[in-house]
């Protein structure tokens, strides 16, 4: 699908975060960072077992079913396979978390990462009590 995968009313984003939390619990993941943009999302996930592909299939597939039902659509919501990078050094982990947090700033959607509601940044920086996922 070209275009937005999350509606402007934010209901889709809330639903995605609920589904992400379910996926994290189901596949025993740890989420270091996330950011929901209009037409894509970023996750920084740590897995304890080799469940990344299964979990991403579940997350994207279940969200696609929700999105298509909600918006009377059919077909794919996400294009192609997800991109995964193996992170072996803490310095790179921090660089990726920073990249994810600053994504809406680089896209000129907000002036600061703190202003973007759909990211883990505010909880990570101590502006909110806990991550919503």
Low-confidence stretches: none
**CATH class, please?**
Alpha Beta
Counted by DSSP, the helix tally is: 4
CATH superfamily: Transposase IS200-like
**What oligomeric state is this?**
single chain
Give the helix level as a range of percent.
Answer: 40-55%
Question: What spatial form do the alpha-carbon principal axes imply?
Answer: globular
Q: Major beta sheet, specifics?
A: 2 strands, antiparallel
What is the CATH architecture descriptor? 2-Layer Sandwich
- What's the structural domain tally? 1
Average pLDDT confidence is 91
How many strands?
2
Strand fraction equals: 5-15%
What is the distance, rounded to the nearest whole angstrom, between the alpha carbons of the first and last residues? Answer: 25 Å
Secondary-structure element series: HEEHHH
Describe the strand arrangement of the main beta sheet, using strand numbers.
1-2
Structural class by SSE content = alpha+beta
GO biological process, one term: DNA transposition
Domain Transposase IS200-like: 1-103
GO molecular function: DNA binding; transposase activity
Pfam families: Y1_Tnp
